[in-house]
Amino acid sequence: MGTRHIPLPRLYELLLGKERDRWSPEARFIEAAHNGDVGKIKKIAKELDVQGRGIPATVANTTYMGMNALHAAAGCGSFSVFEYLVEEVKMDVDLPDTAQQFTPVAHAITNGNLPAVKYLIDHGADLHQQRAKGNITLLHVAAVHGYSEIVKFLLVRGADVDAISDLGTALADAAIRGYPSIVKTLLEHNADPNDARCQFGPLSMALQKSSVARVKLLIQGGANVSGDSPRDNLLIKAAEKGLTEAIKCLLEAGANPNVPNAFGRLPIELAVEYGTREDVEILFPFTSPISTVENWSVDGIISHVKMEIKQLEDDNFVKERVSDLKRQADEAFKKQDYLNASMLYTQALKMDNFDTKLLSNRSLCWLRMGDGQRAFGDATKCKRMRPKWAKVHYRQGAALMFLKGGDGAEVILPCMPTAERSEAHAESQALLFVLLD
Which parts are the ANK repeats (predicted)? Predict the structure, then answer.
């Protein structure tokens, strides 16, 4: 079942009151269309036709709050009203309303009216239409509202299963909204669960919503679980939410439990803090020993993380420890020991993940080690916290230039939001000018 909507008559009652005699004739006209009452449509149109244009012309051109008769009829009108409006009056089946830019068939989908959708498509409505705002297709609308039968119909009729909107694919929409049946249908019609054009993949969205059912479906459908960067670390998300079954599925599908998040914390460490002992036990055989954990066992890692959490509650300890780690990292960097420097900066970030200098320095370490994606990730995160800091713009530009010079550019750039991609591109061009000057 899809999301609920306020029926149009009820909406008008809330706005105009229950006494319909006080409504404007345009409001009563649109309500009549919504109710599929052809006789009343004609009667009110005759009342509105003060210029003598004729009833068909008046019916076609009368609107209220941006909607015409066909938009309203698409909600729950009968076939007789469609036959009258489309076949006799010849109303445009692809004309969007002026309020939401929804066409009649989009209104029909929003209201879950499958017979109306079929009728309008059969009578010329564009199956591949996209809403001007957001590039939203009919398939996106059906997926967002959870109408599985309409999704099936659109796919059978030839809708593009991988059509992209500003928010992603229909599969991504269904994954984040929580409709396993639609996820299953889209995958059965060969939807791509790894579409690089999506800012966030369907599997990531399913984990964000703690939907193990959708996680399983997506993995069975071929979703990639081997993210090797903090941005797409799926095990991290599962561990943070304590999703035991999702952790099992991801590990069975080959997810790497030894990739830390942006602050150097592994899934097993997060499982201690946010999950259960079972989660830790599941992750333990697949996790490489952590050098700072003296007793490498399930009990040992639990004790270690709990001690870290307790220490983080002591402000003086945190300040002293971060200062000491930063000093050691700076010394390692001066010796060009970038690996140890990055590890030390990571340890410090585990204790203070809002220190932009640590992020900036680690970004430079990644760059010196040839890891442009991590360098760019740290610089971008740092820029969000200090957007006016000149150094971080330089860091991001340097990382982007490195990526554009290698294979990584085509991997990361399409996944960035359009505005951020344009801004980063401009910064890289400015940096290139400085370096070449």
Answer: 100-132, 134-166
Distance CA 214, CA 202 (A): 9
Distance CA 151, CA 125 (A): 16
Q: How many residues does the chain have?
A: 437
Q: What is the pLDDT of residues 107-133, one digit of tens each?
A: 999 999 999 999 999 999 999 999 878
| Cα Rg of the chain (Å, integer) | 28
Average pLDDT score, the chain: 86
Structure tokens at 239: 């561990």
Residue 247's Cβ-count burial label (10 Å; 0-12, 13-18, 19+) is buried
For residue 130, give the DSSP letter. Answer: E
Beta strands 67-68 and 63-64 are antiparallel
Q: Which fold has domain 337-436?
A: 1.25.40
- CA 425, 197, 165, 235 dihedral sign is negative
At 324-337, the pLDDT tens digits run 899 999 999 999 99
DSSP characters over 212-264: HHHHHHHHHTT------SGGG-HHHHHHHTT-HHHHHHHHHTT--TT---TTS
pLDDT band for position 207 (cuts 50, 70, 90)? confident
The string of pLDDT tens digits covering residues 268-294 is 999 998 989 999 999 999 999 988 888
State which H helix or E strand residue 331 sits in.
Answer: helix 315-334
Q: Please state the pTM of the whole predicted model.
A: 0.68
Give the SS3 label for residue 98: coil
Q: How far is CA 135 from CA 57, 139, 182, 416, in A?
A: 31, 11, 20, 17
Spatial distance between the Cα atoms of 280 and 21, rounded to a whole number of angstroms: 68
